[in-house]
Write a structure and sequence with these properties.
Elements lengths: L1 H44 L1 H28 L6 H17 L1 E2 L6 E2 L26 H31 L4 H23 L13 E4 L3 E4 H23 L1 H11 L1 H6 L4 H26 L6 H16 L4 H20 L10 H15 L10
Antiparallel strand pairs: 1-2, 3-4
Length: 369
């Protein structure tokens, strides 16, 4: 009798697992179908908002890729990611203009990248028109990348590595990240103030695209730059020895260490790559909108929504998740039917986050959380 009961229990457990698997696949198929239908509808009815959403999504995608990369290797959520993006953007602003806040007016350094010959001359692009910025901003972007990489590695040496060696839990890491995020935001407020700032003041040139779409020319640069960086990261992860080591450590850190992989070196490279992506995303975000110290904290929710939607630990999923969140936000506030104020744009990301956690916490690419 006991043998029969045991077999019956095993059979029921197997049937239950199969039922859950079928249900999970049905939910995944329904999500893919919904996003495909929604995207098609957005292209046909809200073409302008869809185009802007693609640009916004590419910025979120870069930030989400860095976020999921850090989580995949180090197994904790980097809550200072959004503020790191804005700090890097302010570093680029400082390198470009040499300005910090003063008592009455801004204090300027005697020299900045804008003082280079032709640094502020608008760069033409292959189509009709030109960008609002010159090559000085590209140099400032490189300065921001170097600064963000150095900052991330320094924070790992001084804060995160000691916590890892002590075996600290997720809560301790979360508190550390939140403290660092507050410190970054306070630093931005002290050095550059709370007033919004722009890389290039004035009216920015626009470009006409097919289907009567008009966008700011700078947004074309943002989209293609994000696409190139995402492609380079993909090649690094799946076509290089370093990428193989990073994926091995993401799957099983202990086994990777036994196999002879220098895990601390992989961690350093992870922070370096994450810092570079953070700097690029921050500068592009500021170029798309403007520089505000609190924008990094506001952006944290869409970043996590994009990361979880794509599947934590999946770079390609993070890219797709960023695109979906960016497009959904822009289309939602553009729709008269929904009547959502642009000020509540980021609440759309919160709704996406809640729904994906309820329906499929593993995300679209099925990575376990």
């Amino acid at each position: 009798m006991s043998v029969f009961a045991g077999r019956l229990t095993d059979a029921l457990a197997t049937a239950q697992d199969r039922f859950r698997g079928v249900g999970d696949q049905l939910i995944l198929a329904a999500l893919w179908l919904f996003f495909l239908v929604f995207g098609t509808w957005a292209i046909l009815t809200e073409t302008d908002a869809f185009a802007v959403g693609v640009v916004t999504g590419s910025i979120l995608a870069l930030g989400a890729i860095g976020l999921t990369l850090i989580y995949g290797i180090l197994k904790f959520a980097h809550f200072a990611h959004g503020d790191s993006m804005m700090l890097a953007a302010y570093v680029a602003f400082f390198a470009l203009t040499g300005k910090v806040v003063g008592e009455r007016t801004d204090v300027e350094l005697p020299w900045s990248l804008n003082d280079l010959p032709g640094a502020t001359s608008s760069i033409p692009w292959p189509g009709e028109g030109e960008f609002s910025f010159g090559y000085g901003l590209l140099l400032a972007l490189l300065v921001a990348v170097v600064a963000a990489v150095a900052l991330f590695i320094l924070l790992d040496r001084l804060v995160y590595r000691p916590l890892r060696r002590r075996g600290s839990g997720i809560v301790i890491f979360a508190i550390a990240f939140l403290g660092i995020a507050l410190a970054m935001r306070s630093l931005m407020l002290m050095l550059w103030g709370a007033s919004p700032r722009l890389y290039v003041p004035g009216i920015r040139p626009t470009t006409d695209l097919p289907f009567d779409v008009r966008i700011v020319t700078d947004q074309i640069f943002i989209f293609f730059a994000a696409l190139v960086l995402a492609a380079l990261l993909y090649l690094l992860l799946f076509r290089t020895k370093l990428g193989k080591a990073m994926r091995a450590m993401s799957d099983n850190p202990d086994l990777a260490l036994v196999a002879g992989i220098n895990t601390e070196q992989v961690v350093t490279w992870t922070w370096a790559i994450g810092g570079a992506l953070v700097a690029a995303a921050g500068v592009m975000l500021a170029l798309q909108a403007q520089l505000k110290p609190e924008l990094g904290f506001v952006l944290l929710l869409p970043l996590f929504a994009a990361t979880i939607l794509g599947g934590i630990g999946s770079p390609q999923g993070a890219f797709l998740g960023g695109m979906i969140v960016g497009i959904t936000q822009e289309v939602a506030v553009a729709q008269d039917l929904l009547d959502i104020s642009p000020g509540y744009k980021f609440s759309v990301a919160f709704v996406i986050l809640i729904l994906i956690l309820l329906l499929r916490p593993r995300g679209l690419f099925g990575v376990k959380t």
